[in-house]
Each structure stands twice: as C-alpha cells, then as structure tokens.
Amino acid sequence: MSHLLDIEELNITFGGLHALRDLDFHVEEGEIVGVIGPNGAGKTTFFNMISGMVRPTSGDILFEGETLVGLDPNQVTQRGIARTFQNVRLFANMTILENVMVSQHCRTKRGVFGSLFNTRAFREEEAEIRRYAEEVLGFFGSRLVGYRLEQPASVLSYANRRRLEIARAMATRPRLLLLDEPVAGMNPIETAELTRLIGRLRSEWGFTIVLIEHDMNVVRDVSDRVVCLDHGETIAQGSFEEVSSNSDVIEAYLGRPLESKK
Amino acid sequence: MTAEQVDEVTRGPFDFDIRGSMRRGLLLGLGLVFISLAGLPIGLDTRILIKPVLSLGYLSLIWLPFISGWASGTETVLDGVATTKRGARDLVRGGLVGLIGGACLSLLVLLMNWFDLRDPLVNWAPPLSAILQFDRSIAFGVLVWPLLSAVLSCAGAGLHIITPKIRSATLSAVLFTLAMAIFETFIVDVADFLDDKLYGQNGGLTVMSAIVVACLAFTVSAIGLGRRVATARVNYQQSTGKTKASQTTMLIAIAAITVVVVPMITGKITQELFANIGIFLLLALGLNIVVGLAGILDLGYVAFFAVGGYTTAVLTSPNRGPDWPSWVPTLPWWGALLVTIAISGLVGLFIGAPVIRMRGDYLAIVTLGFGEIIRILFLSDWLNGYFNGAQGITNVPPADFGIIQVKGTDPRSVFYLVLVFAAISIYVSWRLERSRVGRAWMAIREDESVAEAMGVNTVNMKLMAFVVGAILASFSGAVFAAKVGSIFPTSFLILVSIIILVVVIVGGMGNIIGVIVGSIVLIGVLGGPKQPGLLAEFSQYKLLIYGALLIWMMLRRPEGLVPNVRRSRELHQEEFLQDAWLRGEIDDDANTEEVDS
Amino acid sequence: MTTAMRGSGAGRTNVDRFLTVIKVVLIGVIVIGLLAFIAQQISPGNGFAKWTHDGEAASRLTGAQFKGLVVSGLSQGAMYGLIALGYSMVYGVLGFINFAHGEVFMVGAFTGFIMANKFDDAGWWDGAIFIPAVLITILTCTLVAMATAVIMERVAYRPLRGSPRIIPLITSIGVSFFIQNAVILLFGAGAKSYPSNPDWLQDARTLGVGSFHIVSLKGTQIVVILVAAASMYGLWHFVERTKTGKAMRAVAEDKEIASLMGINVNRTIVTTFAVGGAMAGIAGILWGLLFRSVIATTGFLPGIKAFTAAVVGGVGNLGGAMAGGVSLGAAEALAPLTLLEPLGVNGVSQLRDAVAFTLLILVLLVKPTGLFGERLSAEDRA
Q: Are B292 and B516 in contact (CB under 8 A)?
C-alpha cells in the first residue's frame, strides 16, 4: 500500500439508507482529487467519515498504512488530515488570529503548567504559534492580516470566511487537506483566484488535496483525477475529460431517458 | 453612516398607547400586591432608613412605581426616525401607570378589610393592613396609595424630561442617600465618628442629615466627578501597549493596597463580611473557569467545595469518624491542604469523566445529581463511621501559620488567607485564559464538534477545566473548614451551587473583574446561602431575590454586569453585527476584489 | 448521535477505559447485589450474608413486604411519569430542560392542599360529597398548574427563543428558585397537611382471585395508578389524534418548516406548556392525596427524578416518559432493599435519591438515547 489514503469497501447506512456503498477510493501523495456528484450523493458523508465525525458501518480507511476507523476527529486531525466545512463553521466570536492559533492545538503541547509559570518553553511555543498563524494567513494576501487579526471572524465577508476556514485547516499542518465546496458562494473573480491558490497549496505547501466541488471549471482546472459519486456509489473515475464524458455521470446529473427510469 | 438630523415630533399629552400603559399599570399593581403579600413590608418595617419618614419596608414597595414610571417612558430610538419630544405626555403616562398600580394596592387594603384569607396566605393579617394603611384609617390607605404611586411614577417618568446632567445628579443624590441609610451598619463599622453626626438613636438617617447627604451628592455629581471617572475609564480602555500595561499595574497595586489595608481599620462585622465574600469569591472564580471559559454548565459545583471541606476536616480534626484506619494521619492545616488539592483533583476527574461527553443540558442535571449524591453520602448512616452523618465533623483546629492563626473568631485572618488564595485563583484564571488551553476552551464553547475536527482534544480539555475548577473550589472548602471550625452536610446544599452560579452570571461569565464585582454585590449585600450580608434583614427574602435576579439578568443582560467581550458577542451576535456594519467594519463582498499580491 | 457511536476500537482513550470501568463496577454491583438478595431470600444465614452483615444473618424480605415495595414504587413512579411527560414534551419542542417544571407540580400540590382544606372546613372532604369535591379539586389543580406553566413560558422563556440553549436552562433555574421562595413567603415555610382522606380511600384492600391474594394496596394507590393511566391515555389521544397534537409534533420536528406550513408556532408552544403543566398538576394533587403533605420544596426532587425518568425512557418519547417514570419509581423503591441491603450497606432508605441519580448516570453512560429511543429534531440532537 503506497497510497497516502486508501479506502476499502466502505459502507455506511443510516437506518436502512445506504449513504455510501462499497466505496473504494485512494489518493496518492501530492495528488489533487476532485469529488463530484449530484446533491445527496454522499459526498459530505464521505468527508465526515474520513475526518472521524461519522463512523462507517463496515470497511476500512487507511491513512499512511494505518487505519483511521474508530479514531475521534481530533485524533484524525493529529494524524494529518484537516478539513473545511460546506456551511462555513468558524469560531465566529474568536478573532481571526485566534481561529488559526487554536487549530494548531494538536501540534503543540504546553499545558496548564507552562502557562501558569510562564516558562520559557511556553513563551517560545506561543510565539511560534503566532508566527505560523500569521504566515498561514499571509497566504491569502492582505485580507486576513493587519488590523483584521484582532477582529472577530463574524465580521468577515462570506468569501473571506471561506478563506479563513482554509487557513484554519492549513494551520493544523496536515498532509491531506479535505476541502468541502471551497468556492461555493464566491463570485467569478474570487473563484478564479481561489482556484489558483489551491494549486499553490500543493506546490508551495506540499498538501495533498481532496476537494468536493460543484463548479466544474474549478474541478477541471485543479484536479489530477476526478471521482463521481451517486447514491453512495462510485460511478466513474479518471481524468476530468473521461469522467465528464461518461454516460453514467451525465445520467446522474441529468437523469435517464424516459423509458428506463425506475 | 451617521445619524441625520431629524426633527423631534411634538405630540399631545394624551397621545400615547393608553391600553399599553394600563397593562403596565396592572403589572405594577400585581407586583405591589405580590410584594405586600410576600411580607416584605412587614419584615423590613423595623429597619428605619430616614427617621421618621421612610423605613425599608415602605421602600420595598415604593421603588416599584418609580421604576415603572421610568420604564413607561423608555422608547426605542431608531436611527433616522423622528423621536417624540419629551414633555407633559410622559408625565401623564407615568401618572396613569402609577395610579392604576396604586389602585390595585388600595383594592388589596379593602379586600383585607372585607375577607379573611389568613389561611392560606400567611401575611393576610393586621400587621400588613396597618402598614398599608399607614397606621391610620382604611380610607386613608385607600386614598393615599394611588396618589403616592402616581406621584412616584410621575417622578420616574419625569427623569426623561430633565437634561441628562441634572438627571444623573438627581439619581446620584437619591441613590447615595439611600445607600448611606441602608448600609448604616457597615458605615458605622468603618467610620465610627459618623454615627452621632448622621444617624438617629435607633438607626436611620435623620431628616436633616438625609437632606445634607442628598445635597452633597447632587453637587458632587453636578460638578462632573462621575463623568471624569467615566472619561478616565474610556481613556484607560483605549490606551494600548506600554501605557496600558503601566496603568494596569497601577490599578492592581491600588486595588491590592486597598484590600489589604481596609480590614485593618474596620470592625469585626465588616471583616466577617469580607471573609464570607472571599470564600464565595474563591468558589465563583473556580466556577467561572468551568462555566465562563469552557462553557460547561456544572450545577453540582458544591460537590468540590464539600470534598475540600471534608478532606481538610478529616485530616485535621480529632473528632473525625472512628472508622478511619490509623495510617490516615492528622496533619496541620497546610499539610491537609496539599492532600485536599490532590483529592479534589481526583474527584474532579472522577465526576468529570462520565459527564464530559454528554450534551450540555444533560451534563447540568447529571452534575446536579452528583452534587446531591456526594451530600447524601456524607450524611448517610452508611458512612457514619467516617463522616459522622448529620452531626458533622467538629473541632477543626485553626490553620496555624506560626505567626498568625486563621480561625473563625478572627475574621481578619480568614480574610487575609482568602486573599492569598483569591490572588492565586485570579492569576490562574488570567494566565489560562490567554494560553493554548484557554483558546481550546473558547473554541469548545463556540462549537464543540468543529473544535474537535480542528484537532482539539475536547475530552481532555474539558476534563482539565473540571479539574482546575475542582481544585480552586477545594481551596475554598479548606478555608471554610478552618473558619467555621466544623463541617456539616447542610453547608453543602445544591443551593450553594445555584448561588455561586448566580454570582458568576450576574457578575459576567468569563470575566474575572465581573466575578469579583458579582461576589461583592451579591454576597456582600444580600448574603450567601447561610451567611448574612449587609442587608441582614433580607435573609428570608434573599433567595427570592436571587431567583428574580437570575431571570432578569438572563432576559435583559445575559452577559452580566461586567461583560466579557467575547461572551457578550456570543449572546448578542445579531446586534453586534448590525453595529459593526453601521461602523463600516464588515467588509462587503464587493470590495474583496483586491488583487492577490 | 456521533458521540454515542464512539468509545471503542482504535481511538480508545483513558477516559473511555475509565468509563468502561465505571460501567462494569455499577453493573457488577447490581448483579452481585441481586445474587446476594436471592441467596438471602433462600437462606438468610448464608456465608456471604453473614460476611456483609458483621456475622449476623440477614433478614429475609417477606412476600408482602416485597409486593408493598412494588406497589408503592409503581404509584410513585406513575407520578414521576406524569411529570416526566412535561419535561419530555418541552424538550421535544423547544430543546431545553425546563428546570422549573418540578415547581409546576409543586404548585399543583399546593393548590390541592388549599382546595382540600377549604372543602374540609365545609365538611365536604368525606362521605358521598367527597367525590365531586375531589373532582373539582383535581380540575382546579390542573388549571392552576396549567396557568403557571403558560405564564412561565410567556414571561421567562418566550423572549429567549433562539438564544444559546444554555440560556433558557439557566433562566429556568431562576424561575424554579423564584417560585419556590415565592410560595414560602406567601404561604409560609412549614409543611402543609392535607385533611385525612375518607376511610374507604385510605384503607388497604386486597386484590385477588378467590382466596388467592395477589397484592394488597391502598385505595389512594389504586386512584393514583388509575388516574395516571387515564391521563396518559388522554394525552396520547391528544397528541396522536387531534390537529393541535399533530401541530405539536410538526413543531417538534422543525419549527421553521412548521411555521411555513401555516402552523402557529407560538400557540403550539403555549399548548405544549399547558398540556405539560396540566399533567404536572394532576401529579401534584395525586401526590397530595397519597402522601397528604406538601411543602414548598416538594417539587425539587420529584422534578429532577421526573427528568431522570424522561431520559431513561428517551426524551421526546411520551410512552417512554411514562415507562421511564414507572421503572424509576420501582427501581428507587426496590433497589435499596434488594441491592444495597444484601451488600451490607446500612441506612439504605437514606440512599433512595442517590439510587435514582446513579440510575440516571448509568443510563446516560450505557444508552444515552434512553431505553425506548429519543425523538428529537435534528438540531436538538447536535
């Protein structure tokens, strides 16, 4: 198994409903994989499962050769997988800086003792957390730094919240980044910019990325490989061109010709 | 976006929502009747405030029309919408509210004359009638109440008409005079020489001294002392960096010197009061970490207080239960303290672990259950051999530090000991809030599942909050044991948990200054579950007031008297965002098109 | 939901292990206690019993004692169940624990005391006229408790709708405190005694077939169980069959959608409080008839225990609440003598309340969704 992430025979049922069925999926180190599929296809469940928020009914998730099944979400993050949320979920009343600082929690270790006695190790760690937070925020240009650092996340515009979510995920220092509809709700200019940034996330920061996206332009521009889910099953895999011309995929999005509909 | 100049609209004196005002008047009447039947006027009548005009009993009634009158004139001011010119209209409205309210009380006077409802209403009796009739005739009472209530309500409404400067001067005159009268015991205890000058023989300000005090307060306020203080505060809040740090140091130094020096010059009553405030402050600081910082509603917090108290008592008292094995030593107080800290921490873990993964509200009830279980166990025959059941553990020796002995008969020593622990607790809260742990707590409070997905080990972090809280509470328990000299299960009722919770909430969740203010105001003035406060007369009414205060705070000011910036943002998110938008701080999507560098 | 699914497998932490230990210990105590109880019933002088009772033989529980415990447990449990319905419905609809619900019950019991005493003064609390008198009393208690619950909702909870869920919970603690102390101040702090019930209601009677006696119970216990069953049936009919009941279920599922469907959400919530309050009021008067004494703090413990019952049965699940109440009442009555006494714990009757709370903790650890499953809207489950 040389894949970074390897998913085998994954099933999940919610009270009889198959949210995911016999899913096989893998990600190579350094790859960008796009996951597409119509609404309700199980894409977000798929992310929830990898990040440990939902436990699969059967099957295995291997990350760097070790299983993730049964781990709590924070342990998954500790192993090196970070995610964003489809419906942006920031810590709205914490400042922008704090949002990015808190997500370095699992990469740092000073506890009560250090902070009470203000030890040298504690001060150095705090300084490093802050430095790294600013570095991550600086990746998005001038938008999230400067006077913004001390502002609560709730005052940000929608697009900036999405950027902050990505920054927060980056700050956990992951190897694999799961982006859930990163450009949803953005205007074309912002979308184009973020598409470029996703590319840079791999080239400059070395992240492997899986993204769920409905905007096919983005998927085409960034993905090395595309996977299409429908009704919890993989219906096509391959390059964007292959998948987008696949008849099953077209059918999943547009529906079947009349006579064969179930 | 600045408010444009909009003209004031003048409306006729009767042009207001009459039905709404009548409803308000009825509510006022209901309040007055409730206060009367709850017996406040009778119980508090012996306490004279201004001789011979006003007793605390009458004050418990007449403040309500005044406030109602003021409230009847409060109008929402909208930016850009014309406001109504203040004037006779306000007075008429206030008068109407007061009149109706007072009429309800008149009705009560009549009903009390006609019917006998003493069973079941215990206060439906001649003493209350006498007070409501001003010790004169029924007709006098019936006629005076509507009039008095209307006048007071008018006065309350009239506050809207006068200029802010005069308003604040008037209010400070009234409040200051009342405070001087209400806190007589405290003032005399601190400054003995004022006794004959201000107060009459059986207590209470004389009319003359009341007038003098009021005039003084009016003048001082009119000169603008209050505003200068406010300006200084704003300046302090806006200063940054070095200036702020030095100012903070200075403020802390002043506060420290004050709390150290004041008990030296006051009498025993005040020292006792300070000691009680201190013990509850310790508890409140601990609960503030659990509720305020980590957002865990722990209703069984008293359990840790109890464990602290009992552990110390067992380890120091010769009267601990007979069943303890001989290897459990008898230690000096400070030695017992170390063990107490360890045991409380363990109990914190033990109680914390099962509840930590529950939904927040289930957690509240389960911790409440744990609080009760622990008390029941201390009380039970089963463990009688260890904790002496209801008799409790007596003869807990004073905490002996060589130079001073801390014991209940010397409340000043207790206060200084409490001060040391309070300083430790404040330091702990302050450091933790600004560290990696504090950030994790904040994130958990905001959205637990996201915090977990971002790599925060929520279970460990919440347990840590539980344990730190437990240890801080055990300080309080240990001091309490040394102070009282005996430990009984009845000192650890659920009531204690609730009162500490009220202290934290009224003061301001998550804010250290707020918690201090809350302890001083509530424990100092109203008193703890069993400890009297400055208003010793209130002892039978204080729980009612605590309950009412808790409801009122939650409805009107959930962030507390001294809010924590973040907490209040959480509680008023919509308003906060609207304000930020008005100030232009929200970035619109339109201006995010700046090119990436 | 997700929390319930964790706890084993690769991600086990020390906390999980510790919880497993607690579960094993608690269940172990139950099993050993039960075994010891059975052993002591067979032979009171067995070795284990002697060991736990300092060398003396344990005392055997007679069949009549045992049945007596069951009956008193069931009748008390029926009242817990009635109160639990209010918790359950409010939690289902608004998603918060109405901590003050126990006080509604207390207000019901207090009203019952006042009415009963007035009737007794008039000589109506005995003889043939007792039946209409008691019916009027029950009706009044129900109405007063209903009004209390509705006013509570209007004054304290409605303004807080939409705020973080911890806020109404804290408010309800304040409400509970306020009502309790207001009652103390208005009516006095002492315990109030109901007038004595007519003999035919107070006397024990034996149920059985021919000469085979199944169980003997007091008339009041029969009344309690019958009235509780009737109320439960009425409530079930109301929720499942009427239009208002359907509206309630819709609001519980999703307030926003329900309001889009033309349901008056405010009125439905008020109805929920009113119905819950009515059930608590009935429980209050039944409590008064059974124990014939009420005090301002009467509402606190039964309130908490009723919440326990609601959790045991599964929050939002009305049948579950009733079943939970009955099982809690039975467990509370039986466990001290059948589990703890055989283990040599003395003064077991003092530990009744501790048993109830321990049961709550055990259920939340082992099956947090309750024995019969909870019915909550998606947002409340989070």
A: no
> Considering only CA atoms, which of C121, C138, C116 is closest in space to residue C193?
C116
Kindly state whether residue B263 falls inside one of the protein's structural domains.
no
Q: Which of B121, B377, B571 comes nearest C187 by C-beta? A: B121
Is the CATH code 3.30.530.20 the one for domain A5-260? no
Kindly state whether residues B298 and B318 are assigned to the same domain. Answer: yes
Residue pointed to by tokens 């079941």: B120
Interval A37-45 mean pLDDT: 84
Instruction: Assess contact for C177 and B526: CB atoms under 8 A.
Output: no
Asked if pLDDT for residue A15 goes beyond 80, the answer is: no
Q: How many CB atoms lie within 10 A of CB C363?
A: 21
Query: Does residue B266 sit within a domain?
Result: no
Q: CB-based contact (8 Å) between A247 and chain C?
A: no
Q: Does A70 touch chain C (CB under 8 A)?
A: yes
> Is residue B592, in this structure, part of any structural domain at all?
no
Q: Residue B320's closest CA among B406, B407, B374, B385?
A: B385
Structure tokens of A115? 């902070």
Question: Do B117 and B124 form a contact (C-beta atoms < 8 A)?
Answer: yes
Q: Smallest Cα–Cα separation from B475: which of B279, B260, B256?
A: B279
Distance CA A22, CA A15 (A): 17
Return the C-alpha torsion angle C7, C9, C11, C17, nearest 10. Answer: 50
B381 and C346: CB-CB below 8 Å? yes
Which residues in C lie closer than 8 A to residue B505 (C-beta atoms)?
Answer: 170
> What residues contact residue B276 under an 8 Å CB cut-off, 6+ apart?
B523, B527, B528, B531, B533
B509: closest chain C residue by CA: C167
Of B39, B377, B554, the CB nearest to C185: B39
In a domain, B268, yes or no: no
Closest CA to C275 of C88, C86, C84, C94: C86
pTM: 0.89
Domain ranges of chain C: 64-334
Tokens of B177: 């005079």
Determine the straight-line distance between the first and last CA of chain B, rounded to whole angstroms: 31
For residues C29 and B576, what is the distance between their CA atoms, to the nearest angstrom?
53
The three-state secondary structure class of B233 is helix
**Proportion of chain A above pLDDT 90, given as a percent:** 33
Closest by Cα among C182, B564, B426, B206 to A152: B564
Cα separation, B29 vs B34, whole angstroms: 8
| Beta bridge partners of residue C205, listed in sequence order | C217
Quick check: B453 and A152 CB within 8 A?
no
The span from the CA of C30 to the CA of A179, in Å, is: 49
Least confident of B267-271, B299-303, B552-556: B267-271
The strand pairing partners of A211, in sequence order, are A34, A179
Boundary (domain end) residue, out of B105, B134, B161: B161
Give kind and range of the element (H or E) at residue C174.
helix C166-187
The percentage of residues in chain C with a pLDDT greater than 70, rounded to a whole number, is 94
- Which of B551, B556, B572 to mutate to test binding with chain C, by most C CBs within 10 Å of its CB? B551
Q: Decide if B382 contacts C345 (C-beta within 8 A).
A: yes
Average pLDDT value for residue range B123-131? 90
**Cα distance between residue B579 and residue C36, in whole Å:** 68
Within 8 A of B108 by CB-CB distance, chain C residues are none
Contact assignment for A52 to C11 by CB distance below 8 Å: yes
Domain count for chain B, please give it. 3
Assigned architecture for domain C64-334: Orthogonal Bundle (1.10)
Give tens-digit pLDDT for C228-251: 999 989 998 998 889 988 888 888
Of the candidate ranges A26-30, B307-311, C308-312, C340-344, the one whose mean pLDDT is the lowest: C340-344
Cβ contact, residue pair B437, A112, below 8 Å:
yes
